[in-house]
Amino acid sequence: MAHFETEYQRLEASYSDSPPGEENLLMHVPEGSKSQWHHIENLDLFFQRVYNLHQKNGFTCMLLGEIFELVQLLFVVGFTVFLANCVDYDVLFANKFVNHTDSSKVTLPDAILPMDVCSAHIRDNTFVIFLLIISGVFWLHRLVKFLYNVCCYWEIRSFYINALKMTMSELPYVTWQEVQARIIEIQKEHQICIHKKELTELDIYHRILRFKNYMVAMVNKSLLPVRFRLPALGDSVFYTRGLKYNFELIFFWGPGSLFENEWSLKPEYKRGGNRLELADRLASRILWIGVANLLLCPVILVWQILYAFFSYTEVIKREPGSLGARCWSLYGRCYLRHFNELDHELMSRLSKGYKAASKYMNCFLSPLLTVVAKNVAFFAGSLLAVLIALTIYDEDVLAVEHVLSSITLLGVCITVCRSFIPDKHMVFCPEQLLRVILAHIHYMPDHWQGNAHRYETRDQFSQLFQYKAVFILEELLSPVVTPIILIFCLRRKSLEIIDFFRNFTVEVVGVGDTCSFAQMDVRQHGHPAWMSEGKTEASIYQQAEDGKTELSLMHFAITNPHWQPPRETTHFISQLKERVHREAAGASSDTHPLSLSESEPRSLVANILAGPSTLASVHFACDSSLTNSGVPEMPGGAAALRSLSPISGSLHLRGSLSAAHRASGFTGRTMTGSGTDARTVSSGSSAWEGQLTSLVLSEYASTEMSIHALYMHELHKQQSRGDLSRHTWHRQESDESSDSIPDEVRSEPNARSRHVPRSHTFPTTLTSPGAGSASAASGTAAGRDGAGPQSSSQRRHSGPAADPFGAGAAKVVRTPLVPMGGWAEDGKASSRHQEPLQEETSEDELPPHIQKVT
Amino acid sequence: MNCRSEVLEVTVEARQVEEAMLALLHTILLHRSTGKFHYKKEGTYSIGTVGTQDIDCDFIDFTFVRVSSEELDRVIRKAVSEFKDALSSDGMGQISLEFYQKKKSRWPFSDECIPWEVWSIKVNMVNLANEQERQICREKVGEKLGDKVINVVEVINRHEYLPKMPTQSEVDNVFDTSLKDVQPYLYKITYQITDSLGTSVSTTMRRLIKDTLAL
């Protein structure tokens, strides 16, 4: 056994136990987190900040703005205190003589009290000290917030630079749609949101606008107490920033609010079980907040006055007319806002409508005031002329006491008067103006159409579009009125509010709790009178008023062409788009507009586009050259615009609008291409985007939206002609104004109303929702509708699956297919809801009319 | 709320609470743990091994698998026994296991802990009258737990967000490296107790006052 040969060998053991044989080990390479942007905790806040930074045009602009605001605050307080305590007014008014050795001139420093006297003044005055302390605290709070903001936005800034690859300097020239597209792009890489692989546009909108959507929905369902019947002023709306702040405090983020955090409603509010108890709790919270408001009222009031004084006096002095100018009221902004509409979109829409709206409001200058104003202006003008002439002759006149001030005052007086005197060469057509306004603002109560020349309509419109002076006044009154509204009006609604939040909150994966209206689901919240008949399963309580769901959906789909909606929604959108485009095409083939008599049935879009003037021929002619071409025809559209403008004269607003419609019409046509599916639409438009910047696209999107809005309103009007319309404007009381108009339109004493061209293409001007002429009108409407595209009426009879668009127009009397689900499933036995509940159920057989939401 | 949340609900007798909780928490942690990372200098790493261990329950007909790490077990046991003590005889409670990630932030702010997955286990306690019922309960709870475990595995098998594997410097932001034999994702165990009566009148009143004074 000397040498035993064997295969077996002793293992060259390496007894290092862990890890054995490093070279054979499975090695991993860590990915690391290259960016810090994965998995962001509070996406709501994050997206809001991203949006804000974009809207504020980058970090530097924002920083500067905020710093100046802080300085301004200091200045306001400091300067006020200084004016009140440290100025010797006797010296200024020359009631007291100053002894000067060298010269006899009084200088400004003479009027300023020395330091010690000044501080003694302040020390003696407890009110001033109180004021100083309050504002000091407020300022410190702002400062801390500012510092915090700087840190947060610095992070957002680096997000823009590192993740989105956009520099701050180019940010002002980048549209939000582009930013959004980038965000969606980088989600794939960084996973900002961990729930989904991909974000959609709607997710981002939902997160940014979560609470705003709730507010819009609440205003839409008339839940918030912002309309009041006052004994002297009649119907009025009171909705100020202070009130809005309080609402948000109560519902969304204040202590003990309904929301647990930014993204979820507290679980107890989602269950119907103890709604009464929750309502009590909410009511007591509202009471407390109201009381707190009352206690803080003096502070807020002083603040408001100071702020208004410093921010507006300069403007008023410079151009006194600005007080007579109008602005969209806060309520208007809420009423007119689509679901899922960002601030800048809303603002651009409203700004476009501004000119037409102020023109419209100017139609209603009171003739009495005009006469008075003319004469006052005459006298004031002559005085002013004399004074100025004298001054020119010898400027010593200015040194005479009060001459300068009277010149200033007379000037102001004349400017004010002039705003009451209408332009002689202006011809007003309220009905058309209202239509132009509608093209931009997209919402309007039914009974306005056809009643545009009525004073009631004007009054109601002025609630949306108020005088700036009124706006400022309301803001000043707000600290006093807000607690009253909170304590006496909002508190009573607590149960409804609780119900609202329970019924209309849905949890969306990856987004959290959102307002279900904001889902823009036609099936759940569609209104049968707004093209979603047959599709909607909503009870009256669930339907959004004024076609808000449908219009919002269209708006969102048009502004975000890449968005891929759920299937049924896609169907709805593509159907509507197809209809609009087909009718637009039908309208353009109608080459000779003069042949269009009232008897000749016409399509809706032609109706919208043609208007009463012969302008139609111009733009239809233009159009026929445009129809078969694609993008290169862009200058053609512009040419159409240009060719229209000189002819149109006083109607140029309308003319340009319809020219814009043409442009948008062919935009649409190129977009739809051959297919009708929204997916092909979006792909078509992305091809488009390659050639044009997205800014251009969004500009055309807004005109396209205008045409859709007009179309939907027109269709809605025809559809609801047979019914008693369901007013959302004043749901508290029936609307008397719209019932009584039919025939006295002609005999109206108002001279201006005769200027309104009563075109046959606008049946509304002849008829009204009133019963008398309704049947005839709907007859023509039916004819018109039937002749448009090979239409709906037959298809309607063929089955429920058929196209439900505008089907109602074909029948004069129809029974609405409103599913009466009642108000909500659970626990509606409360006494407060008894009334509306009964009303709803009793309406089962009737067409829906004025809905009462008490 | 950029995080997933899963809810599990169990109904158990008082003496089963501890074991049931341990079973569920350990099951989840088993799938959310890895072996220790050994970093090499070229930016690669190898993963150590993790042993598993079967645990039989005394009061439930159930056996579960856990990571064989005494240290981890001790930590979990401590949390669970605190929870058990806080739970009154027939109350409801909720214990949640939250996985999070740390994010370093600049000086004035402390590090953020951002959760990415939260498991909430709701516990319903029942009192049983006699031994026979206990016997039935023993089996039933065992079955239930088995379902839950399958549930957990299903959720974990889905392809969803997990923090990316960190580099050496960042390993503390993702993994809990304090244990020497196993390395779970950073986690936190919290619990809350709710009265079975939920909101009695007195608590409502108290809360109401507290809420309203919290202006």
TrEMBL record, chain B:
InterPro entries: ATG101. Its main location: other. It is found in: Preautophagosomal structure. One of its GO terms (molecular function) is protein kinase binding. Keywords: Autophagy. One of its GO terms (biological process) is autophagosome assembly. GO terms for cellular component: Atg1/ULK1 kinase complex; phagophore assembly site. Pfam families: ATG101. The keyword Nucleotide-binding does not apply. Belongs to the ATG101 family. This is Autophagy-related protein 101. It comes from Fundulus heteroclitus.
